[in-house]
Specification:
Helix content: 40-55%
Strand content: 5-15%
Number of helices: 16
Low-confidence stretches: 1-12, 323-338, 361-365
Order of helices and strands: EHEEHEHHHHHHHEEHHHEHEEHEEHEH
Strand order of the largest sheet: 11-10-9-12
Length: 381
């Protein structure tokens, strides 16, 4: 058997797990092709997770990461042969490469290999499986911060970075750490999963940049592109084998994003993940620990995890039903009337727009005729 970590394939520096993902265009549980053993030399404090606090969170993270795969020879031959047929990535632009080497610090270790191994995998996968979108976004996706408050670049150098990128690349690069944290918090995924039938109403998402908490915004199209960038990135957190036995928290997010994008019809990158069933208490425990740890990291740097989905109905908002009083007999009647108009957090919606999205339990009837005419025209009455 050959050790995957640190061993180089015949046509590149990526380990076998990453080569297999790029060659396939997705993930496979290699439990029949590799044996995963404990890595006694693993040091959590030499990785991006060195800032992780608390005995239990550190114990859980070390258990997930302190492993080393050993591959069967047949698997090595199969994977390297398939990977050798993949188109080779473009060289990194000289100016950007120099900036990354001289103005940033990517020296920390990732879960499997160096930080640069992780960045290169994300870039290469994007170039092959997410055309025509720029793979450079994923090469530098963590340059403005990772989930553990490690910042390879200072905020003061943002103008220098922007000068090296296109506006499209810069927008997605600065958004990446923020959207990743919203995914890891599960708030965004849970809300969007509950609104699958109305995602066509999504206009934008507003959120806060991790490195300095400045306001950022993506329109709907940019958001879907960003979510596909996130999908590719999360692929690199899949365990080599035995998926159902460990359920690392970031891999759970990977499966969550894949499920959401698939159901939403917005999985634009080529990604295939074999079905996996995670049972028992451990996946839930790890998820809860991960959510608490992430909230603590953001609080430490004054980063807000608040966000706003433009065009979508905010959860838990007050609803005012506007109808001629003679026609209002019950909440059920109000919900069924096509001419009903609802004022929600200062915005107005017709009953048709809200169909299947609101449960009417209690309503207040107020005359907002002037606002209705303003938003819908004189004929709205």
């Amino acid at each position: 058997a050959a050790a995957a970590s640190g061993s180089l394939g015949p046509v590149g520096g990526l380990d076998l797990r990453r080569q297999a993902a790029i060659a396939k265009g997705g993930l496979t549980d290699h439990r029949l092709e590799a044996v995963v053993l404990k890595n006694p030399d693993f040091d959590l404090d030499q990785t991006i997770f060195k800032t992780l606090e608390g005995f239990i969170p550190r114990l859980v993270m070390k258990k997930d990461l302190a492993v080393k795969p050993f591959w069967h020879d047949v698997a090595v031959q199969r994977i390297t042969a398939a990977y050798s047929r993949i188109e080779r990535p473009h060289a990194i632009d000289a100016d950007l490469h120099e900036f990354m080497l001289n103005e940033c610090n990517f020296s920390m270790e990732h879960a499997d290999g160096s930080f640069m191994d992780h960045l290169v995998f994300c870039r290469d996968y994007c170039q092959v499986h997410f055309k025509p979108h720029s793979p450079r976004v994923l090469l530098i996706h963590s340059i403005l911060g990772v989930g553990t408050n490690y910042f390879p670049m200072e905020a003061a150098k943002i103008p220098q970075l922007a000068a090296l990128l296109t506006p499209h690349e810069m927008k997605h690069t600065e958004a990446f750490p923020s959207i990743l944290r919203l995914i890891l918090s599960w708030k965004l995924l849970d809300e969007l999963a509950g609104k699958l039938g109305s995602l066509d109403k999504l206009k934008s998402i507003k959120f806060h940049r991790v490195i300095d908490n400045q306001d950022l915004e993506l329109d709907a199209e940019e958001f879907w592109v960003q979510m596909n960038y996130q999908m590719i990135h999360l692929l690199d957190f899949a365990p080599t084998a035995d998926w159902e036995s460990g359920a690392p928290v970031v891999f759970q997010c990977c499966l969550g994003v894949y499920d959401f994008l698939t159901k939403a019809g917005q999985l634009r990158a080529t990604v295939a993940i074999q079905p996996v069933r995670m049972a028992g208490l451990m996946p839930t425990l790890k998820r809860r620990i991960g959510v608490r740890v992430l909230a603590k990291y953001s609080a430490q740097i004054g980063h807000s995890l608040d966000y706003e989905l433009g065009g979508m109905i905010p959860p838990g908002c007050d609803v005012t039903v506007v109808l001629p009083s003679a026609r209002v007999r019950s909440s059920k009647t109000a919900g069924a009337k096509l001419l009903a108009v609802f004022c929600i957090c200062g915005r107005t919606f017709t009953a048709q727009q809200l169909a299947g999205r609101v449960t009417f339990a209690a309503v207040n009837y107020v005359d907002h005729s002037a606002r209705i005419r303003q938003d819908f025209g004189d004929d709205a009455s």
